[in-house]
Amino acid sequence: MGMDDKIAGADPRMNPQMDVQADLLAATFAAARQSPPEPSADFMARILAEGLAQQPPARAVAPAHDLGSGVGGGVLAQLLAMLGGWRGIGGMATAALTGVWIGFAGMGQLGDIAAGYLGTADALGTVDLLPDTDVLAMMLDQEG
Amino acid sequence: MAFDALTDASDEALLVLYGNGDPAAARSLTLRLAPLAYRVAYRMLGDAAEAEDLSQEAMLRLWRIAPDWRQGEAKLSTWLYRVVTNLATDRLRRRRGLGLDEAPEPEDGRPAVLDVMIEADRAAALQAALDRLPARQRQAVVLRHLEGLSNPEIAEVMDIGVEAVESLTARGKRALAAMLAGQREDLGYGHG
Q1: Cβ of A46 and B56 within 8 Å?
Q2: Does the pLDDT value for residue A134 go beyond 50?
Q3: What pLDDT shows up at residue A71?
Q4: From CA A4, how far away is CA A93, in angstroms rounded?
Q5: A-B interface: how many C-beta pairs under 8 angstroms?
Q6: Alpha-carbon gap, residue B85 to B41, rounded angstroms
Q7: Chain B positions in Cβ-Cβ contact with residue A52 (cut-off 8 Å)
Q8: B8-98 has which fold?
Q9: Does the distance separating the beta carbons of B127 and A3 come in below 8 Å?
Q10: B1, B6, B88, B121 — which has fewest CB within 10 A?
Q11: Does this complex have an ipTM over 0.85?
């Protein structure tokens, strides 16, 4: 244990008798550390029993919902479980409302919706399939 | 310790787990600390039945302090050493009916040690000698040389300064050495 078992303040060179006493004491300490008093098994059992009796109750944890069983669960509970529980139902409801909104807004608004996703026509760039009318008129004048 | 499943947890963490209702923590704390409490109580009192009674009382205090324990303030073992040695000192004072710190120190080679020594082995001889030490010296010597605590730790347990601890252990050891010197033959040192 790294303890200094020599007698403090004693210089063994000056007092051989104290040296002998110090060695004896150090050996006795070592022997005592090697054979410490051990409690009985009955005592340990009593301590543990008292510890368990004194222990505060475990903190309550809310039980998980059992959607697939129970008298009140029935068909609705099974349906919920099949659709992924309340979270799945929420996703389905969102999708349904989105469809209703698209139907209400109509096709005329799709341009706006597309612009929302793709950007405006200017940003995308345009390709003219016919030359500008001014250029066409000038060509006709030259021929005529 | 076959069923101490929480071997890596500190004593303080185990006490928090115990306070949260974990029964495994109760088992681990019992395995770790009940032997410590009993061992120190026995060293202080020199009687197995009294040591069991005292250490059970100390462990009961430990169970009850769990909900209020604040981590980081102290080591649980230091707290337990303090409780056990203070309870033991109180009992010794009641037993002898006088302030032990005022009790006279034993004389060198006092023959009474031989009389109370039932066994000739060194541990028993030491216990017999310890029983004759004043309580505070006994407390300091037990904590330093049998439990292996440092002087600052002992100072914390005994609520005194480090110099006072050094003084108590030095005086205690001088007295023990003198008492044991007369037992050299019995302790197996007679032919060295």
Answers
A1: yes
A2: yes
A3: 43
A4: 78
A5: 129
A6: 7
A7: 23, 26
A8: Rna Polymerase Sigma Factor; Chain: A (1.10.1740)
A9: no
A10: B1
A11: no
